[in-house]
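5-hydroxyisourate hydrolase
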Amino acid sequence: MTKSPITSHVLDTATGQPAAGLPVQLSRLEGETWQTVDEAITDADGRIMTWRVPDQDLGFGTYRLRFQLQSYLGDSAFYPYADVVFALADERHHHIPLLLSPFGYSTYRGS
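Structure:
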């Protein structure tokens, strides 16, 4: 199985473990409205390597990954979700990591 042009890896910095079982929604900005492209759940290693949508349908545009933090962290989540918005503007692989804890999160352009 090949990996998607958009992948993610989520690490729980409070436990030092991958964030397994975290729901993530992939959306694309169409005009001024977000359209859901797909939804997935992180695997045992905290990764999403493929989406059900065909890769060729993930064209250039503005995308959002919505990480459902409250679903993963429960009542200890200060942020119910984390939105990471990014531009898919070239053919390169786009890896979007997320580091999370009950009171914060960060992201960066991965490789």
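The chain has one domain: 6-102.
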